[in-house]
Amino acid sequence: MTASPERRRELLGTAAEVFAEQGYNATTVRKIADHAGMLAGSLYYHFDSKESMLEEILRTFLDELWDGYDTVLDAELGPRETLEALVTESFREIDRHRAAVAIYQKESKQLAPQERFAFLAESQRRFEKAWLSTLERGVAAEAFRADLDIRLTYRFVRDTVWVAASWYRPGGQHSPEEIARQYLSMVLDGIAVRP
Amino acid sequence: MTASPERRRELLGTAAEVFAEQGYNATTVRKIADHAGMLAGSLYYHFDSKESMLEEILRTFLDELWDGYDTVLDAELGPRETLEALVTESFREIDRHRAAVAIYQKESKQLAPQERFAFLAESQRRFEKAWLSTLERGVAAEAFRADLDIRLTYRFVRDTVWVAASWYRPGGQHSPEEIARQYLSMVLDGIAVRP
Amino acid sequence: MTASPERRRELLGTAAEVFAEQGYNATTVRKIADHAGMLAGSLYYHFDSKESMLEEILRTFLDELWDGYDTVLDAELGPRETLEALVTESFREIDRHRAAVAIYQKESKQLAPQERFAFLAESQRRFEKAWLSTLERGVAAEAFRADLDIRLTYRFVRDTVWVAASWYRPGGQHSPEEIARQYLSMVLDGIAVRP
Amino acid sequence: MTASPERRRELLGTAAEVFAEQGYNATTVRKIADHAGMLAGSLYYHFDSKESMLEEILRTFLDELWDGYDTVLDAELGPRETLEALVTESFREIDRHRAAVAIYQKESKQLAPQERFAFLAESQRRFEKAWLSTLERGVAAEAFRADLDIRLTYRFVRDTVWVAASWYRPGGQHSPEEIARQYLSMVLDGIAVRP
DNA sequence: TATGAATGAGGGTTCATTCAT
DNA sequence: TATGAATGAACCCTCATTCAT
């Protein structure tokens, strides 16, 4: 007798893969069922709807993400160390939840306005606050440059990290920590040779 | 008296807005027609299919993009100047074809394998070649750092620039050239204060 | 200044060809217009509707057919001579109105019940009456065999003649009269060698 | 408990009736569904498309037809007996597959050029070969008249038989064998009284 | 738990037809 | 006379969802 939560997680994993690869709208319930070796109707024993699968995938991912982020933020490190830790944590999440991250990247903009996905907008707000305050602290502490538009910088760092989910494949030649190190090196010191 | 190519362009502009905002799959032909103030069937007087609209939008954008890129590449500037020119040109294209760029970002991965959209894959190959060779020239000329994985650097620069289309709004407070300047400053010199 | 009836006849000829080749339902107004070197809408200057074109084609054909038939029937020949004359006249009409005959064969069953095409049903009734009475006269006069079901014979002769329109091409190696002669020979004397 | 192939056959039977009565193009999927007591969309659980229903109807018919024909042809009877057997078999098939035969008669010409319906053209070729060789054998054996154009004779016999599907109603007063007997009598010996 | 069959809403597309120019 | 553009109804088909078994 298979425990229900076990099966749910399996099925959600399958669904996430397909959503990530084909896009949420282009993914039919039947495709998910095919990948899971069952018929489309059977999924409705486990889930209320296609949308509820999407919700659970994103919620699970964001919960874990914020676990990691909160740990970092609660440590009250210096701005540069905080930035390094957040970026590293982000790449770890990409490693662990590649599919969910890819879905999030592609769909969150359309989803966020919907009541059901209000948690996405909420997460975005917290995210922005955490990053902006870190950057501001860094500028104040003269760790980060003061001559840049801080919102532009925020977007730059944010996008820079998360878009990686679109090409990242777990188990490749670079570990998430290694990728994080190189990204940080580029973001912090630039790609130009210092004069 | 609206000449035919004129009307096509108008309608394609409308379609591109809707595609960009709602996603290609989620956009119904009826929505496009609504935005254009006509009935769904009427669009088929001007276009063969929804997909052909998408194709024309992307093709037009890529043609103009490569006009700009080729001008830069043919100038045979030094690697750093080439990089700066390419990035600046990219932001100009984002400014001119915001909707098309956003569509391209979101859909090209699913589209490229299809025969009809082979030009996307082809463009991606040329794009990668242009950037990689510029970066390699820069490393050889000691303009760019030699200690970074060059493919990682390529992805970093590429994504960093184009994702901007997802938040950029033409007519905002920063001109494309101004944004390019700040992005280049971050990419080349980093956001950390020099020691 | 092209006389209107002239142009009508031209256009109806074109339409008949296309109807015959592709079937009435499968023929779009645009296809007809293409064949005529004009745009679909322009046909509506000449005709009220696609259906009115069909009607005029069939009416014209049947009018001419009955001209010929009535001439034969009014001559009050013997039954065998009447049959020969009717068959010959039929092949002449096939020669002259190949397209119309083909359309008639394929569509009349669906059309006849419609009020607009009541003339088809009426023609069929007259047709049947003419043939049945000829056959009956022939049986009475011991010109035709008495051991056959007369309605079956009627259908046999009728179909035998008109289906030829599906393969007949005007200008081929056999004249309509020659084909009529051979058909009559088969119908009257059979294909078996006489003992 | 309706097994799936059972249901398919039922639905195909319904579809065939409607196709035969209204013509393939004029038949909407809704009409078929109405006749079957379900909604249009539900048909797509059983079949890929309207066209695939048509294909299966025609294929099933032709397969059975050739079963019968091949049995006749393999028996290597004399030419006259072969002709009699083929005609009788044809009327039996008309009796069993009236709708399919009617569809075949009306649509095969438009369908045959399509790749999907290549089996129609193939069947026509085999059909023609079987009939022509039978007729030629008959002429050589002095069973059939030598003074007739053999292709004309072929068309005459072929059409004569199959058009019957357009008026034949199973369960009428004549059995298929009886109709075959009378048709054969007309075709072989003619309708005229022997001198 | 899963299947098989169906629902019903909607989506892309076609096409006869209209009408101002 | 003919064009160009649009209408609106209908069509084939897809798909999330339901439900008896």
From TrEMBL, chains A, B, C, D:
Pfam families: TetR_C_24, TetR_N. Residues 28-47 bind DNA. The keyword Transmembrane helix does not apply. Residues 5-65 form the HTH tetR-type domain. One of its GO terms (molecular function) is DNA-binding transcription factor activity. InterPro entries: Homeodomain-like_sf, HTH-type_TetR-like_transc_reg, HTH_TetR, KstR2_TetR_C, Tet_transcr_reg_TetR-rel_C_sf. Keywords: DNA-binding, Repressor, Transcription, Transcription regulation. This is Transcriptional regulator TetR family protein. It comes from Streptomyces fructofermentans.
